[in-house]
């Protein structure tokens, strides 16, 4: 495998903390030995989304979090 090539996985979310924990648990274990960055793009969640991502960021260095300052419309989320 050519490790010079990298893959990025983007997870758009808004108030889906109850699903995000399970998703990150599985995904981060699968990408542990790969050259993959995982990005969580938060569309101004009001639940525990940030706390969940922060927990995993303490374990995995390839996990990144971006939060929109306002709720973006569907066409502008990415």
Brief sketch in words of this structure:
The protein has 78 residues and is α/β, with parallel strands linked by helices. The chain has 2 helices and 3 strands, in the order βαβαβ. The longest helix is centred in the N-terminal third of the chain and has 14 residues, at 17-30.
Write a structural description:
The longest helix has 14 residues, at 17-30. The protein has a three-stranded parallel beta sheet with strand order 1-2-3, covered by helices on one side. It is 29% helix and 24% strand. β1, α1 and β2 (36-42) form a beta-alpha-beta unit. The model has no long low-confidence stretch (mean pLDDT 87). The protein has helices at 17-30, 49-57; strands spanning 7-13, 36-42, 63-67. The protein is an alpha/beta fold.
Tags for this model:
three-stranded parallel sheet, alpha/beta, 3 strands
Q: How many runs of DSSP E, i.e. beta strands?
A: 3
> What's the helix count?
2
Secondary-structure content class: alpha/beta
Write the element-wise H/E pattern from the N-terminal end onward. Answer: EHEHE
Radius of gyration, CA atoms, in whole angstroms: 13 Å
Please describe the topology of this protein.
Elements (H helix, E strand, L loop, with lengths): L6 E7 L3 H14 L5 E7 L6 H9 L5 E5 L11
Parallel strand pairs: 1-2, 2-3
Helix pairs in contact: 1-2
